[in-house]
Design brief:
The protein has eleven helices and twelve strands. The strands form four sheets. It has a six-stranded mixed beta sheet with strand order 5-4-3-6-7-10, sandwiched between helices. Helices cover about 40% and strands about 20% of the residues. The two termini are about 50 Å apart. A hairpin with a 3-residue loop joins strand 4 and strand 5 (about 155-165).
Length: about 350
Amino acid sequence: MPADSSVGFWSWLQSSLSLFANWRWLGLLVLVPAFIAWAFVERRKRAVLRFSAAAQLFEQGRGWRPHLLWLLPVMRVLAFIFAVIALARPQERDSRTRDLSVEGIDIMIALDLSTSMEAADFKPQNRLHVAKEVLTEFLAGRSNDRIGLVVFSGAAYTQAPLTLDYGVLKEVISQLRTRVLEDGTAIGDAVATALNRLRDSDAKSRVVVLITDGDNNAGKLSPIDAAAMARAIGIPVYSILVGKGGKVPFPAGQDLFGNTTWRDVEIPINPELLQSMSSQTGGEYYRATDRESLKAGLQKVLDSLERSKIIEGGASATYHELFHQWLFWAFVLLALELLLKSTLLRVNP
């Protein structure tokens, strides 16, 4: 073989094998001749029908079924070949490449789940419902920002660590409810929990977004001490005060017909505290009195931050898995062989 032909062959072989994620499984194809030989031997060893008047039997002709018996081993061999190809995981390469040097921000959101978030001054929905909707839309507009979630009322808990899996975050947010945790508003503990999640981050832009509707009245750590911690490690706290303040409609129960009854309740707020925390840490304070202002507040947080590299890695091609198609036809052929073998092409020795 000429040298050029040899080089061309190996180049073609490498290119072909690159289409398989686990190409070593293709080595099982060397068993195909053995499968064919076994099918031939099995057919030759099949029991012969003993009939006392063989001449009369031959006169009847063979019929159409014996002419189709060769299909059974062919389907079995093809099923084996398709299964091997599926094991090798064939893939289709996308013509576009993906940049793995992703720019983004590390964001920990601390969301208030105290019962006061049931106030319905964001008509026709309450504060928590609107906050969940806005956060879901916020995630839909992100692509490279790692986002985590801390929830709090009388205590604070990490609901989701920093992640790029926005689908999981959306599902977590959709499940959030009030009256699950001990009631109260532990702002200091919430900020400290969020800071703990950001402490080891290598991103240049790290931020805590605090969304609450009340004043601190629970927890072990004061908000001012939590703000001092944030300032010490260089993480700004952006606070968003949700609600209109003053007396707001709050659910009081249900009437005889199952409809929610409302009463006006004064919910204490402390905008000065949130302003102090944000100012002390280099963040900003926003007031959200409706859905649009809450959405605008989150966007302003992003606009004010410097983006940084949080994943280094060059470029990568995108592949689409094709193994399921080959596996499907392997099962179809195997099932068809078993069906024909036990019905139309059944041989009775």
